[in-house]
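User: Could you check the structure of this?
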Amino acid sequence: MKPILTITRYIVGILFIFSGLVKANDPLGLSYKMQEFFEVWGMHALNDYTLAFSILMIAFEIIAGVAVIIGWQMRLFSWLLLLLIIFFTFLTGYALLSGKIKSCGCFGDCIPLTPTQSFIKDIVLLILILLLFRYRDSIKSSKSRNTSMIFLLATVIFSFGFQWYVLRHLPVVDCLPYKKGMNIAAQMQIPAGAIPDSTVISFVYQKDGKEVEFTADQFPADFNDSTYTFVKRYDKLVRKGNAEPPVKDFVLLTASGNDTTHAITTARGMMQWLFIRKVEEGKQKEILNWISELEELSRSGNMPLVIITPVADAVNKLLPAGLRHIQVLRSDAVAVKTAARTDLTLYLMNDGAVVNKWALADAAKSLVAIREITSVAGNR
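Assistant: Sure, the predicted structure tokens are below.
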């Protein structure tokens, strides 16, 4: 039995560590997925706490994975893992059966799983964790107490430290459709070979006080009978397709409400897109300094600067008179959250494709990189 328990511990531990690391690369992605569940359940009051929930859950996954592998405090961690996997199984089961959630975000955006795949994964994990729970008293750590504590302390520091880093900067591995090298206009198109939704036209009529429904190719034999009274007609989904573009709902509006999405995303040459999710109190000076430097580079290097934000009014109030000529474009909050994983994210674009991106914490690096690009272009 001991070899089976050892193999099970390693399988469970590695899966939890891997799952936690993938999500730790983008804690905001998990927090947005939590908000999606809370929106469906009508628990809007919890939306402000989803990032904290995300950070804690990710850290626990990694810590629990390490604890299980080294066999530390299995009486405690077997209970915690069992409760966690029951919760996860409920979420993936809900996503599968309700159809209201497209994916549970189990492995973040880097490894998207369908609700069916996620549910099967959790069922397998539940069985394995139940085995560990059953024999939890017989599992002893192969490490000394001090060594185990060092392992766990290092894991705790790494789990929270890595998340702090990517939240301040940007994900180390970018798995979003806005990553480097991607042409945004092309990402807004339905992929070649995508399967569209399959629908049939359905009719609802009333006959003898009851509603009857049939499709366009299955009219009743006695349909010409005057006892049929039309109620409604609708398109019934038979098979869900996958004809969705990677980038959805990315719309850029000018101050007057004109849609300038196509003009911006297909513009030739170099451009700077500065995404501003929100203007945080206490950072206005730092934000303005960066914008001023970027505006100066835009003039000297023929590299237009546009600001993309869902809070256009707040941004316009922030800009002094000398920067009011910068074009501020309004965009949907969800689209901006997807494109910008920090409150301020700068995209350097070339012919509509992402060349590089930086967070506010890397403003100095962005200025150096853009100056180098400008210098090289000027010497040609």
